[in-house]
Amino acid sequence: MQSLPHHYHVHARGSTEGEIRLGADGLPELAATAPPEFDGPAGYWSPETLLMAAVAGCFVLTFRGVARASRLDWARIECDVHGVLERHEGRNHFSRLTVKPHLVVRDAADEHLARQCLDKAETACLVTNSLTADIQLKPRIEVIEDA
């Protein structure tokens, strides 16, 4: 890892209506709009869905690093994130996020270590650490002997 602080720069551009384009140097552009909940069209990424994707992606990448350092033998992980956006004191914000990782391990003897790694990933995830929402971890660990 490079020494801190790290700096990230992205840009967004758009006109009076329609999709906006999100980009960063060296990355493909993404089209985004307001979500259907804010009268945007279906079928596009929105700032809200991108935030949930950032949480899920950060959790999986953080878990990967924690598992490697802990020498956990695992096969795969999927992570669903459910966010609740509410209005409080005149401001919209995400009040709750439920992070639901589904981890597959190869040996039942690794379940305890797997749970520890999932808990540590929750604590170390920099995206969720940057949010004020209540974060709930609801993991599921599955053992598949020949995974």
Write up this protein:
- With 147 residues, this protein is of the alpha/beta class.
- Helix content is 29%, strand content 33%.
- The chain contains three helices and seven strands.
- The protein has helices at residues 47-70, 111-124, 126-129; strands at residues 11-13, 20-23, 30-32, 74-88, 91-105, 134-137, 140-143.
- The strands form two sheets. Strands 4, 5, 6 and 7 form a four-stranded mixed sheet that branches.
- Strand 2 and strand 3 (30-32) form a beta hairpin.
- The longest helix is centred in the middle third of the chain and has 24 residues, at 47-70.
- It is globular.
- The relative contact order is 0.15.
Pattern of helices and strands: EEEHEEHHEE
Task: Please tell me the overall pLDDT.
Answer: 96
Rg (CA only): 18 Å
Structure class? alpha/beta
- Kindly state the percentage of residues in helix: 25-40%
- How many strands appear in the DSSP assignment? 7
| Residue runs with pLDDT of under 50 for 5 or more positions | none
Given the structure, what is the number of helices? Answer: 3
Gap from first CA to last CA = 30 Å
What topology emerges from the helices and strands here?
Layout: E1 11-13, E2 20-23, E3 30-32, H1 47-70, E4 74-88, E5 91-105, H2 111-124, H3 126-129, E6 134-137, E7 140-143
Parallel strand pairs: 5-6, 5-7
Antiparallel strand pairs: 1-2, 2-3, 4-5
Brief summary:
This protein has 147 residues and is of the alpha/beta class.
List keywords for this structure.
four-stranded mixed beta sheet, 147 residues, alpha/beta, three-stranded antiparallel beta sheet
